[in-house]
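hiii, so i know i said id send this last week but things got crazy w the move. better late than never?? heres the sequnce for the chain we talked about at the cafe, plus the structure i predicted for it. fair warning i was half asleep when i ran it
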Amino acid sequence: MAPNDSQRSSGVLPRSVRFLVIGAGVHGLSTAWHLARSLKARGEGGGDDVLIVDKTGVAAGASGIACGVVRNNYFQPAMSELMAECVRIWEDHAEDLHYHGAGYVALGPPAQERDLVDVYERQQRINYRSELHLGEDAVAAHMRGLFPDWRAPGLTVCLHEHQGGFDYNKASMRGLAVKAKAEGVSLLEGVAVTGFEHDASGTVVKVATDHGEVQVEQVVVAVGPWIKQLWEMLDLPQRLDVHTRAGEVVQDQEMWTYWYLQEGEVGVDPARFETAGGALPPVLHVDSDAPLHDDAGRLITDQTWGIYFKRDRHGVQGGASPVRQGHEFQIDPYPTSTVSEDFSDLWAAGLSHCMARFEGARSSFREVRSGGVGAFTVDNFPVFDYMCPNVFVAADSNHGYKLIAVGREIARVLLGEHSSLLYPFRYKRFATGDLHPVSNSPYPWS
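okay and structure toks below
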């Protein structure tokens, strides 16, 4: 059922394929790469059995404009265990995937101490390298050891992950595509899926595209924020009842909610953001309940606020809390600007609040094509599961870019194995009440 060589080289959609992967972002590319490798190792063929289609191209969607942060700051045990495996893949293929293991630092006020202590203790149990600092004086001392001009008050907990870091999104995805193609995976860009044909059992037997139909054995849907459209094509429920951990039932909930992801950049010399020893700085994430003022003393907010930032090729990049857009969103064309009017003021003020070196950064703010829009599930955590007998859905709920190991686990499931890492993200959890615990973070993905 594999496409022949002429079909692969000419970009012609084959009549049939064993595994069809829809979407050339992180989940689609990682799944295809790991699947082809596993098939070869089993002596069951190889990449010739795997085809990726994308309606635009590699990294054309969310994976191409993500901030690229890789971290394991998760209160939820299942997320933490999955992320440890993801970080291992980033580390093992750092050069090919343009990954920088600079680390990740999360800082918070007293309200977040218990959460970060729990995260730290879990990281120690799974041998994930990190250190914890408690108390305002200890936190300030640690941060000033990294950055002598550190000045953020009121932070009483610091979790410094010595693993994790960041990568350059488009370069990483191109590198992942190269690795998949090296295993023989076929990739057709500019091919949009338009529908699915089911048999009496609900199994998908054909996938319709704007380039014709293809018979399939198994399908992987990995389309990021376009998931709602594919969900509709598969006739899956748009609303559902959610059984909570406490045994309550929240009725008639929307499956999908869209959020604008607010990110931007200040165009300063990247070398201006380095550690006291001249090293590449870790990614920083600050949640604070201290009043936030801009450099002129104007109050920006007296509510809890949060920002994250890292060094980038052209300056300092990062973001703040997302903005809810509701259950309907016109996702094509994919948005190129997603920040609210006050985001630049808050984010630049937050940078200056943390470090003296960023005073005046507001004048260098640039609204860049980053962030995009995310499609969040009803509980804001991923769904990784078979949604039809032969259709596996990777709906990442905007956790996606860093979760590169999900593709490896999907490949295992497609080949008949069980994935203990993906099991907690099964769709059935909404009916059983086996939901993920909720942290005190202001971010919906945490």
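btw Residues 108-162+258-376 form a domain with the D-Amino Acid Oxidase; Chain A, domain 2 fold (CATH 3.30.9). thought thatd interest u
miss u guys!!
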